[in-house]
Write a structure and sequence with these properties.
The chain has a single domain, classed as Porin. It contains 2 helices and 9 strands, in the order αβαββββββββ. An 8-stranded antiparallel β-barrel has the order 1-2-3-5-6-7-8-9.
Length: about 180
């Protein structure tokens, strides 16, 4: 039954695509962040509101001069939310709200310590979408998010010495966007 409902939902989205209610977006700057793959889909529900669903993935780590010098920003991130467009969806200024989940492991970029954990929270984003043509846009934005995270801080990736293990709250920069947008 769930598969049938999912197929009906996807079919309804495909029929609405002719009205330019769907857009697909990828952030160019994320690829410069150690090759982070990303994709976001937006669905316009009215002239001023679009729903969004997206994610990021980075499963790569890079070795430095020795086996203990590892640079990584591994992550699996999923988020869903909405954007409000004062003028019209997919053009001009907008601001958004989203709920986000992330499993991550990062280290070696700013410090040799490795932090691994899971975070869940909410975020706000604001930006501007520049219309290049009826089907292509560029999106410029920045966002912050905060919430709760469970993490372990290791002295190094391979030594198995835990420096810190905690649960706590955080607030930080979520992402900076320079995105290519395809409007379907």
């Amino acid at each position: 039954m769930k598969r049938i409902l999912f197929i009906v939902f996807l079919s309804a989205l495909a029929l609405q695509a002719k009205a330019q209610k769907i857009s697909l977006e990828t952030n160019i700057l994320d690829y410069a962040n150690l090759g982070t793959l990303n994709l976001e889909a937006n669905y316009g529900v009215s002239q001023h509101i679009s729903l969004l669903l997206g994610g990021r993935y980075n499963g790569w780590e890079f070795e430095g001069k020795s086996i203990h010098d590892v640079i990584s920003n591994e992550q699996i991130t999923a988020y869903a939310g909405f954007r409000y467009w004062p003028w019209h969806i997919y053009s001009g200024w907008w601001f958004g709200f989203k709920g986000q989940w992330q499993e991550y492991g990062r280290g070696g970029v700013w410090r040799p310590l490795l932090e691994e954990g899971t975070a869940i929270g909410a975020g706000v984003t604001a930006g501007y979408t520049l219309m290049l043509s009826p089907r292509f846009n560029m999106n410029f934005a920045a966002g912050f998010w905060g919430g709760s995270k469970d993490y372990t801080l290791w002295n190094c990736r391979y030594c198995n010495r835990i420096q810190e293990q905690e649960r706590g709250f955080f607030i930080g920069l979520d992402n900076v966007y320079v995105s290519l947008v395809l409007v379907l």
